[in-house]
Design a protein that fits this description.
The chain has 8 helices and 10 strands. By secondary structure, the protein is α/β, with parallel strands linked by helices. Strands 3-4-6-5-7-10-8-9 form an 8-stranded mixed sheet, sandwiched between helices. It has a two-stranded antiparallel ribbon with strand order 1-2. Helix 2 packs across helix 8. The longest helix is centred in the C-terminal third of the chain and has 24 residues. It is globular, with a radius of gyration of 18 Å.
Length: 325
């Protein structure tokens, strides 16, 4: 796959957006406003799906087209991509912004929008992202305080599918990494994602939660070692995706169940998406394998985004073939 935009630098008037750096939240929000347009072959709409504890909007971009298209099956379905649930994973957010531009402005991207409607949440945890960028670089949680000294919930332990602090979470609000919250969906950010998944009547067939790091595509279940009934189908499309990612730059990606790589974990977003009948639900772990970890240099943003875009294109073709068969 070749991308028609070779220079990934977007300019509108006196505002320029650079896809090759980790952008500040204000610049990200300004860029998102430039996508809010019914003009062009791809129609894109910006909306706030919620508000955080610190008063920031949780933004979502919807991309669709009115053109008659070769849908996958008898009805056009949708794919949800969620990025930035863990604030220190800057590459997740950078990729999401790159991929929006790809869908909007490349021929391959436009073809994907003809096949599926795309819903993209580029920064699910904006409070945490601001704090990670400005104060504590490896901060992971949101910024909802529980007392004078303990702040934040791990949003990827807070979803309502087998939520269980004892299952690789924590019931300690002072835990810096994996506090599961006082109950499932206690947090404004997880509530916002949940409402998109189940309360809008959107016919989602795919969910991709984008994380870092590890270079893998993983799928449910995470809360148990049991297999999902369609394990073989999920593995097939993950294998196709990781092969495409690896082919782009020679960086190896692998795939498997969550529990092939991690202990069982309760309250995962990917498990919740699967339980909500989103058949093709995955968590993607981007670069790298630990050399830089969460401190991935900016010069790896574009190659990481390119290989992940190739992976999603190949995965979407697999999804299309499976639901059309």
């Amino acid at each position: 796959m070749k991308q028609s935009i070779l220079i990934l630098f977007f300019a509108l008037g006196c505002f320029a957006f650079d896809f090759s750096i980790y952008n500040k939240i204000d610049d990200i929000e300004r860029y998102l406003t430039t996508l809010d347009s019914s003009k062009g072959r791809v129609k894109s709409r910006l909306e706030s799906i919620g508000t955080t504890y610190e008063g920031r909007s949780i933004n979502m971009i919807t991309m669709s087209t009115n053109a008659r298209a070769p849908y996958c099956g008898c009805k056009k379905k949708a794919i949800l991509i969620e990025c930035g649930i863990h604030s220190r994973e800057f590459i997740s957010i950078a990729f999401c912004l790159y991929f929006m531009d790809f869908l909007k402005n490349t021929q391959t991207g436009i073809q994907l929008v003809k096949k599926f409607d795309w819903y993209l949440i580029p920064v699910l945890n904006p409070d945490g992202y601001v704090y990670s960028m400005n104060v504590e670089r490896l901060w992971r949680k949101n910024r909802n305080p529980f007392n004078e000294t303990c702040v934040g919930t791990d949003l990827n332990r807070n979803f309502g599918m087998e939520w269980d602090p004892a299952n690789e979470g924590s019931d300690d609000p002072c835990n810096l990494f994996s506090y599961s919250g006082p109950q499932s969906f206690s947090e404004l950010e997880s509530q916002a994602a949940r409402d998109v998944i189940v309360n809008r009547g959107i016919d989602f067939v795919g969910y991709l939660g984008v994380h870092a790091f590890g270079q893998m595509w993983i799928y449910p279940w995470g809360y148990t070692f049991d297999l999902v009934p369609d394990d073989a189908t999920l593995a097939k499309c993950a294998q196709i995706a990781t092969a495409a990612a690896t082919d782009r730059n020679g960086i190896p990606y692998t795939y498997g169940k969550v529990t092939d790589f991690f202990p069982t974990i309760g309250g995962l977003a990917v498990d919740y998406a699967k339980s909500a009948a989103i058949k093709f639900s995955y968590e993607i772990e981007l670069r790298d394998n630990g050399t830089f970890g969460h401190l991935l240099p900016e010069d790896q943003i574009i190659p990481t985004s390119e290989e992940t875009t190739d992976a999603i294109v190949a995965w979407a073709d697999c999804v299309c073939a499976e639901i059309a068969s």
